[in-house]
Amino acid sequence: MDEAIRTDQASDAVDDETAYDASLKAFPTLLVKRLVYHLSFIYPRHDADDLTRQVLEAFWPADKRVLCRPQRRRLSAPPWSERDAILITYGNSLQDYEHPPLHILDDFLTRHLGSVINSVHVLPFFPWTSDDGFAIVDFTRVHSELGTWADMRRIAGHHKLMADLVLNHVSALHPWFVQFRQGQEPGCNYFRTVEPGTDVSEVVRPRPQPLLQAFETAEGEKHVWCTFSRDQVDMNFANPDVLIEFVRIIRLFMDQGVRTVRLDAVAFIWKEIGTKCVHLPQTHEIVRLMRTLADYSREAMVIITETNVPNRENISYFGASNEAHAVYNFALPPLALHALTTGDARQLTLWQRHQPPAPAGSFYFNFTASHDGIGVRAAEGYLTDDQVAEMIAAVSAVGGQVSMRAMSDGSERPYEINVSLWDAMKAGPGGHAFRFERFMVNQTIQMALEGIPGIYIHSLLATPNDEERMERTGTKRALNRHIWDYRDLEDRLSQPDSDQSKVFAEMKRRLAIRTRQPAFHPNATQMTLDLGPGLFSLWRQSRDRTQSIHAIHSVSNEVQTVELNRLNLIMDEPVLDLLSGRRYAESDETIELAPYQCVWLANRRG
Question: Is there a contact between 329 and 351 (Cβ–Cβ < 8 Å)?
Fold first, then answer.
C-alpha cells in the first residue's frame, strides 16, 4: 500500500477509547488522533500525547482556540479558483530610496496590478545575513530596511500573502546557533553535529561546498551539518522542540495575515547517516502534520512545498491529498525553456502527458522563472545530458550562467541556469527578432496549465540581466535579482514603446482574460494534445463542463497549421479565440498560427 495512504488511514484508526488529558479534550477528537499518530511516527521514543499538547498549544494558544475548526476542511471546497495568480517578489525589488520598500510594493500592487494578480509571495523579509534572505536571523521581525509587520498586514488586506518558512536552516548568527556555540539552552540541542570522518558521501547535495563545517564552541570544535552554505546551519528536527518552534512561527505568520506557507527546502530537513538524507519518511510525516493543522484551521491556510528535485520525487509531496496543498511545478521552467530555444515542444508535451492531475484538494504551482535559477534536475528523464548542455550553451550565448551541484563521486553537474527570462528569450529559432513573442509564449503556457500561475516580478517587468549586481555580489543568482528604481520603472511603464510597458500591458491583458475563464480553474480537467513538434497544446474543461478551451501555443518561428478536425470541438458551437477575439466558422478547416502565436479556442467566453 502507498505509504501516504497507509499513514493517513492509520491516523484515523487510532483506538477511539484512547484516554487523553483534559487539555487535549478541548480539541476535536479526530484532530488529536491525527496529531498523536503523526508524532508517534516521527518521534517514537517520546510521549506522543505530550508532544500533541505542545503542538496544539503552539498553534492554537488559549486566545486562538476559536480558530480551530470542529471538522477538517472539505477537499471539495478549496480556497482557490481561476481568479488566482501569484506575484513572486522580494520585499525590496522596487525602491525609491525615500520610502520603506514594502510601502512601494503596496503601491505597485494596488495602483498597477489591482486584482489581475490577487496574491503575492514576498520572499524572506526577515533580518538575514546571506543568500538574499534565506539565512534568517530572526523569524519574528520584519527586516527594518523593508518595513514592519504592519506593512505586511496592509498588503495582506488586499492581496493573499505567501511567506517562506525556511525550516531546514537558519543563519549562523541566529540566536539559536549562538546558544549552540555557547552551550546554552535551548539552542545547544537544535543543530546536527557529525563526527569528522563520518561517511556522508551518499547525501544528496544541492551545492558543491563541503557538507560539514567546523565551528568553535564552548565544548571545542564541532562539525555542523550545512546543506547549503557555512552561513546556513541545518536544524535538527530529530529534536521535537525544533518542530514546536516552527509551529509557533507558523502561528505568528497566520496572526500577521500570511495565508500560504512555503516550506523552503523541506526535502532536506530529516537526516540519517547512511541514507541520501532527502525525502525521508519523517520529512513527509512532518509535512502531513502541518497539513493537518491547516485543514483544521479556520484561516484559509495553504501549504506549498519547494523541492527542486526530479519530477516524480517532487510530486510525491502531494501524498494522498494529505501533504502539501501545492507543489512547485519544477519541470516546467527547464522544459519550456528547452522548447523555446529549440522550436521543439515534444519533450514538454511528453512530460505533460505523463503528469498526473493534482489530487483532490491540491494544485500545481506553475512558474517559468523565479528568484532562483532555472533548475535542470526536474527535467531528468525528459532531457538528455546533451540536450541540457545545448540549452545551457544557447542561454550562455545571451549572458546566462550555470550553477553546479556536487555529486557523491566528487564530480559536479549542472544544477540551475542563472539568467533573466527576458534575456533568455533572445535565444531560439529566429533569434532576437522574436524575443517578445517567444517570451509571451513562455508566460502564456504557464497561465493555461492546470494549476495556479506564479509570475516572477522580473518576468512581469521584462527585466534584463543585472550583470553589475552579479559582479558586485559574486553571486550568479543576482543576474535575475535586479532592484528597480521605482521612479525609473514608472517612467518606463509610461512609455508605450519600452520593453517594460509592452510586456507589462500584455501580461495584464492575458491574465485578466484568464481570470474570467472557469476552464482555467486550477482543478479543471486537462488533456495534453499532440498537434506536432512546433506546438504545445492543451484542452481544458470547466468543472461544470460548460466551457472548453483548446490552448495552443506555437514554440516555432515558422507558421503552424492546425486542422480543426483534430480538435474535439463541439458541433454547432461557436469557436472563439479568447486572446485575439477572432471567431472561427464551422466551414473553417484549418487555423494558421503565426510564429510564436498563442490561441485559446473556447466554445464561450467566461
Answer: no
Active site residue 544: no
Cell numbers found for residue 376: 535542470
Residue 96's Cβ-side half-sphere holds a number of Cα atoms within 13 Å equal to 15
Predicted pLDDT at 10: 54
DSSP letters of 472-490? Answer: HHT-GGGGG---EEHHHHH
DSSP 403: E
pLDDT confidence of residue 9: 55
Please give the annotated binding residues for substrate, written as ranges. 131, 169, 262-264, 371-372, 477
The three cell numbers locating residue 323: 501533504
C-alpha cell at 76: 471539495
In this structure, the strands spanning 583-584 and 575-577 are antiparallel
Helices of type H across 124-271:
149-156, 175-182, 240-255
Opening angle at CA 473, ends 471 and 474, nearest 5: 65
CB 429 within 8 A of CB 502: no
Catalytic residue (one of 8, 106, 234, 264): 264
- Say how many Å lie between the first and final Cα of the chain, rounded: 42
Q: Which helix (H) or strand (E) holds 166?
A: strand 160-166
CA distance 222 to 215: 5
Question: The pTM is what?
Answer: 0.95
> Distance (Å, rounded) from C-alpha 599 to C-alpha 577?
6
Cell of 403: 550553477
Confidence of residue 589 (pLDDT cuts 50, 70, 90): confident
Q: Are 345 and 429 in contact (CB under 8 A)?
A: no
3-state secondary structure of 584: strand
CA–CA gap between residue 247 and residue 56 (Å, rounded)? 9
Amino acid 15: pLDDT: 46
Dihedral, CA atoms, 17, 23, 29, 30, nearest 10 degrees? -120
- The predicted pLDDT at position 2 comes to 52
Give the annotated binding-site residues.
131, 169, 262-264, 371-372, 477
